[in-house]
Amino acid sequence: MVISGLQKMTLLDFPGKVACTVFLQGCNFRCPFCHNSDLLGNDGPEPISEETLMKFLNKRVGLLDAVSVTGGEPTLQKDLPELLTKIKALGYLVKLDTNGNRPEVLKELVEAGLVDYVAMDIKNSPARYGETAGVPKMDLSHVEESIRYLLSGKVDFEFRTTVADELHDPQDFEAIGRWLNALDEAHKAPKFFIQPYVDRDSVLMAGLHTPPAEKLQEMKEKIAPYVLCATLRGVD
User: What are the DSSP E strand ranges found in the chain?
Assistant: First the structure.
């Protein structure tokens, strides 16, 4: 288990909860707009020991409601179930951020009662998924399996897409909506968030831009008929 960072308090990462955020090292995607590019490979920031994390969480019992586990891609960590078991034993709710490419781990964690909320990234429409995930010609079957599993209602969840002007167009969201509905005609996603890319020096691809407000609104309008609630996140 490689713990690469700890945000000691956040009101944003777990909806309606006071949480901390734990960052785990390593990812199997290379999204051009990723803000946490220092977490993608094996070499990252000075790691935090599990003992240090657990001491912090013990001291915050009663002050924090939840722990948000993100990355990188948390499901790559083979000791993740053991870590979440220890966190749950302290009485915390757990939110998992994931790209959905390891559905077997997602299912294992949910079925074991180790995750209370899942935020899964939907990178783009199927035709542009590999481009946007930084994995050309990627096999979408694993992502689709995770989508189907979440839509089945086993755990509270949201889908979310970070949008860059150069990588996303409104018609992509029409395609995303049709894709989600084709994967499960009986269930609509309860929450779909569109969050605009914000430029930082740490991203993998220079020159990306935040979409203009009218384009963001059109993206929301395109996805809205296919989900129960579509929302622009991080937009004034």
Answer: 3-10, 19-24, 66-70, 93-98, 117-121, 156-163, 192-196, 230-232
Distance CA 33, CA 163 (A): 9
Rounded to 10°, the helix 141-151/103-111 angle is 20
Provide the terminal-to-terminal Cα distance of the chain, rounded to the nearest Å: 37
Closest by Cα among 175, 35, 24 to 98: 24
SS3 content of the chain, % helix, strand, coil (to 5): 35, 20, 45
3-state helix/strand/coil string of 3-60: EEEEEEEECCCCCCCCEEEEEECCCCCCCCCCCCHHHCCCCCCCCECHHHHHHHHHHC
pLDDT digits 0-9 by tens, 65-107 = 999 999 889 999 999 999 999 999 999 999 999 999 999 999 9
For the stretch 41-63, pLDDT in tens is 666 667 899 999 999 999 999 99
Q: Which three-class secondary structure state does DSSP give residue 142?
A: helix
Q: What is the pLDDT of residue 36?
A: 72
Which residues, listed in sequence order, are joined to residue 69 by a DSSP beta bridge?
A: 22, 96
Show the tokens assigned to 99. 């790209």
Q: Which DSSP symbol is given to 143?
A: H
